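Researcher: Hi, I'm a grad student and pretty new to this. My advisor asked me to get structures for two proteins we've been looking at. I'm not sure of the right format, so I'll just paste the first sequence and hope you can take it from there.
Model: That works fine. Here's the first sequence with its structure tokens right after it:
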Amino acid sequence: MAADMEAARPLRADAERNRRRLIDAAAEAFAERGLDVSVAEIAKRAGVGQGTAFRHFPTKERLVAEIVRDRLTGLAAFGRELLEDSRREDPLLDFMRSLIELQVQDRGLAEGVGSSVLADPAVREAHLELLRTIELLVARGQEAGNVRTDISAVDVIVLTKGVAAASDPLCVVKPRIWRRYLDLVRDALRPESARPLSGRPPTRAELERGLAEHH
């Protein structure tokens, strides 16, 4: 029995390595070309057979969900690091800068968040955790007097997506053009000379409903 268990351990390690290769290969492919990349191509990039790919991820949606969850979890962790770093003068702006850069570089992230994978419980929880983290960043900026008091975390999500999407056609010839538009957003978020905004800030529930109905 002990010998059998010992023999099984390398197989489990191999399986985990294959799973990681698939996730890394898919994340790279989706970032470059969006979610249209086939499982067959991802398996080839990972150096495994299609059968192995489908054993780990029975559907392509499961693989997309795993990558989106991983990205959202990483973003939330980065946001918490910014909150804990007392040297940061404007952690919300630093977070927005990194979020926009990621969206510009990773086509699959924006497509994935706007797809049906948000119905996956793990992805949904990771998305909520990201929103909670952004809420804390917004509150920190408001307390410091760097951010106007009438915006929400959902406003921040919409603004970063807007900058990334609007900059996309120009990024081919001017890769850092998005920074210009982030500067404009930064000034719009400042409380100095801020004018009242139309309507109230959107809520988490409204964002979730909108995303669910959009895909």
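Researcher: Oh nice, that was easy. Here's the second one.
Model: And its structure:
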Amino acid sequence: MSYRLFVAFLVGLIIPFLSTGITPSVFANSDIDALRNQIAERNNRLAEIQKEIDKYEAELKKVGSAKKTLQNAIRELELERKKINAEIIKTENQIKAADLSINKLVLEISKTKRQIEENQEAVASIIRAEYQDSEMSLLEQLLSNKKLSEFWNTYEAHQKIRNTLADKIVNLQSLKEEMEAQRREKEAKRKLLAGLKKKYTDQNKVLINNKQEQTKLLEVTKKEEKNYQQVLATKKKVREEIERELREFESKLQFILDPNTIPPSGTQVFNWPLASFVITQFFGGTEFAARNAAVYGGRPYHSGLDMAAPRGTPILAALSGTVRATGNTDAVPGCYSWGKWTLIDHANGLATLYAHQSVISVMPGQKVNTGDIIGYVGNTGYSTGPHLHFTVYAKEGVKVRKFNEIKTVTSCGPASTPVAATDAYLDPMLYLPPY
């Protein structure tokens, strides 16, 4: 065998071992393992926090189902504050876990990049060595060897070098694909991290609102049960008047629903807007609506679904779409209506309303995906307890108007609200998963 070929053959055998980068990778692996352990510890902590949150949710269900008294209202606010605090701590830990995951991915990407560079150099070395010996033709190699056995040894050495080269190229391709996957995962983690930081900010706003609500409740009632009951009665009376006027106004709106412009009844097009909830009132002629017909303009009719959940529960977009409008009826004195609300238009001819929010997390014109957090459950507007009111409209039949364009008697001013003709209201249960 020629000296050059012998060297090339050795290069082909030795480089696979050199290219593994044993010395520098020891430190990289150690760092990656350390981060992996920290992530595991953080996940264990998250599991502990979740147990605490579940405990508060169980207590809130008991309080929420009890009679509406001042003592229970304060107790509910205190429990929700503890739950929100726990949620904030959970989000902080999720942020730290995401940071650790990103750091781990950075190290893994760096390690993979180094391995790619080493493999590229290895391939180049093998190609150079093979090229130098390939200058001699097969016939020349046959004639240059004194014995036929030497020729076959030379030929076999060339084959081994080519096999080594092929293996290196396959390994190189595999490393490139691995790095691309790691980069995609890193981008996804960064997107998750941005969402968590936004969630953390919003949860702190919910906490502030909770404290303000308790302070206001104590100031208005002066810690007297009779005052609390009087406040509830006043709100209810004003709400009934606003609802009556709104329904009278909507009953005069002209809208003919074309069934071909919306999904067929029974088609599941929406996801539930809350991960955990209890439906306290359905759409249409519910028992509550029948007992309180005055609230619905003289007819026993409820325009959506009421889903009870603690303040601060994330509200999720039921389907991808575009935020048409947001509003806050509480910003105008006397408007005991939706409180903070969001209206989203969907591409399938439907629109959805999310009312009584504590915090709104989206802006008009913003695109949202199914499952995105758009706000947090609250007790704003006229509400007998924290819940989400969810309405489904035929999109073309709902408009956003000012209350002072509708009112004749109430003192409600220029707060905006969605209004729709009766035929534009649709039963949400026709488009949601089984309950």
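Researcher: Is there anything I should tell my advisor about the second?
Model: You could mention this: The longest helix spans residues 148-221.
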